[in-house]
Design brief:
By secondary structure, this protein is an alpha/beta fold. The protein contains 13 helices and nine strands. The strands form two sheets. The protein has a seven-stranded mixed beta sheet with strand order 5-4-3-6-7-9-8. The protein starts with 8 loop residues before the first helix and ends with a helix.
């Protein structure tokens, strides 16, 4: 049973003094309420640290210098309020702070988009792209000139791609006009208006036969049964950003696989995150040469497949 017997915000703000005080209090309250963490933080402690530092506009990766810092009354009021709201609303912390990070890169987010948490971000920054290991997906990041991000949401993967591939123009597509308004904010915040172009439409439809060296996508892939059982934190996100369609949630992924070859240059490839959909895809395409990639927190949730391999499906 969760415990929502919260003290008054003014009382909390009056009693707690330091950064350490508020982190301790937040962890206690999050645990008592049985909150679910998974939107950038995976424990009550990590989320408490993020919320406190972000609300105070302190570096989110530098806790130690500020632990014993005494806070002003207005700061204490802000922290007490946001902790209270996290417990009572069960909205993801990123919606309350309007900020999230991927690989240390900040992004604006609100309820118009899913909270970014794709494993593709880690892969883009890893050795598979321009690394020095024996096998890479892209040998030289300078050779990538055109990138497409399908189902871009907040625009985070398109922006990360623009940073990783400095010579590339990046197109980003989403069906939701609201999501693209958030993406527009992020593109402007990162001063990438000249390199990242946003398109409203259904997958490849607005692209008019363009060709790309690399296509990336973190599409909706949650099936109906899983949607019904999602915790409140995930139910707070836009439904269209989660539901993939079909019994196994893979309908959109099937469409991407079918259409992608027409939009890839020779030597190009497709990088897609599918959550728990690996078994369904391998059953649907028994002869496909999917390369399933590993990240720190996952294995078999992101695949790579080349243009030539796609044409053999």
């Amino acid at each position: 049973m969760s415990d929502l017997n919260l003290p008054a915000i003014d009382s909390v703000a009056a009693e707690l003094i330091s950064v350490r005080d508020f982190i301790r209090y937040a962890v206690s309250r999050f645990n008592r309420a049985g909150l679910v963490h998974g939107h950038g933080a995976f424990t009550a402690y990590d989320e408490a640290v993020f919320m406190v530092l972000e609300t105070l506009k302190l570096p989110v990766d530098q806790l130690e210098p500020y632990l014993e810092a005494r806070l002003l009354p207005a700061e204490r009021q802000s922290l007490a309020s946001i902790i209270h709201e996290r417990v009572t609303s069960r909205k993801p912390a990123a919606y309350l702070t309007k900020r999230t990070y991927i690989q240390g890169v900040p992004f604006y987010v609100d309820e118009r988009v899913i909270v970014p948490r794709s494993f593709i971000g880690e892969l883009l920054f890893g050795e598979m792209f321009g690394g020095e290991q024996d096998f890479t997906l892209v040998d030289d990041v300078m050779d990538v000139e055109r990138v497409l991000d399908l189902c871009t949401g907040s625009g985070c993967l398109a922006i990360l791609a623009a940073k990783i591939f400095p010579e590339a123009k990046v197109d980003a597509v989403d069906l939701s006009p609201d999501a693209l308004e958030v993406a527009k904010i992020n593109v402007a915040d990162h001063a990438l208006e000249e390199r990242v172009k946003l398109f409203n439409g259904d997958l490849f439809k607005p692209l008019k036969g363009k060709k790309y060296d690399l296509i990336i996508s973190n599409p909706p892939y949650v099936d109906a049964e899983a949607m019904a059982n999602l915790p409140e934190e995930y139910q707070a996100e836009p439904r269209m950003a989660l539901v993939g369609g079909g019994d196994d949630g893979m309908d959109i992924v099937h469409r991407i696989l079918k259409e992608a070859p027409k939009y890839l240059n020779e030597g190009g490839g497709l990088l897609v995150e599918v959550g728990t959909g690996r078994a369904a895809l391998e059953e649907a395409y028994p002869d496909a040469e999917f390369l399933w990639l590993e990240t720190e927190m996952s294995f078999g949730e992101v695949f790579w497949i080349t243009k030539d391999q796609l044409e053999d499906l």
